Amino acid sequence: MVDDQRAALAFIAIITGFMGCIQGVLSMRAGSTAMLADALIFVNHSASATIISWTLTGKFTRSPLVIRLQGFVMLLLGAAVLAAVVRRVYIGSAPRPATMMLLGLLAPGASLTCSAIVLRQRNAASTLAAVWKLSTSDAVSNVAVVAAGALVALTLSNIPDLVIGGAMAGYFALKGWRVMISGRIVDPRSP
To answer: What is the pTM of this model?
Structure first.
């Protein structure tokens, strides 16, 4: 059963890592901070699935130090996107709403695929519970990217992209800070 869990986690890590890379690269071409923040969430999901998979081998433990390190990386990545938001406030940006909405609509395919993989592993519910929570946060962030793209198209302004991207990155950085300070994973549903 552990091998099945590890295989499921490996698929999840690959899918979310690939989606994070695609969104990260295309966010630069689309000029979108919301897409960049969404890419961070996918990359974090991939890293978490990889770490959980390593712990199943028994050779690696998810110690508070490892969790703090993951929180520190989350904080740095969130801060980097916030810096991109501030930079674009001052120098301006021209987000491409069509690209934002298209990728925002394709990204849930990755989230749904990961959710289907988790659902097939019902016997490993405790191990994959964190992955399930991450899948739901992926889905919420995908909707936020589509909303940002639609609002950019409607208002012909970059402000919706900057606000939504900044909010997503700020939440990501705050969650990273909380993980880094506590040394334990914070429930994404908690305030």
So the answer is: 0.83
